[in-house]
Amino acid sequence: MSNPTRFSPTHPLPYGKQSVGEKDVEAVIEVLNSPYLTQGPAIQAFEEAVAAYCGVPYAVAFSSGTAALHGAYAAAGIGLGDEVVTSPITFAATSNAVLYQNGTPVFADIDPRTWNLDPVATAARITPKTKALAPIHFAGQPADLNAFYQLADAHDLVVIEDACHALGGRYQGKPIGQCRDMAVFSFHPVKSITTGEGGMVVTPHRSYYEKLLQFRSHGITKHADTFSVFEGAPWEYEMQFLGYNYRITDIQAALGTAQLEKLDGFVARRQELAERYEAAFAPYPAIETQARTQDTQSGHHLFVIRLNPEYSPISRRTLYDRLVAANIMPQVHYIPVHLQPYYQDTLGTGPGDYPHAEFYYNHCLSLPLYPSLSNQEQDYVIEQVLSHFK
Question: Of 2, 329, 353, 358, whose CA is between 20 and 30 Å from 87?
Answer without folding.
Answer: 329
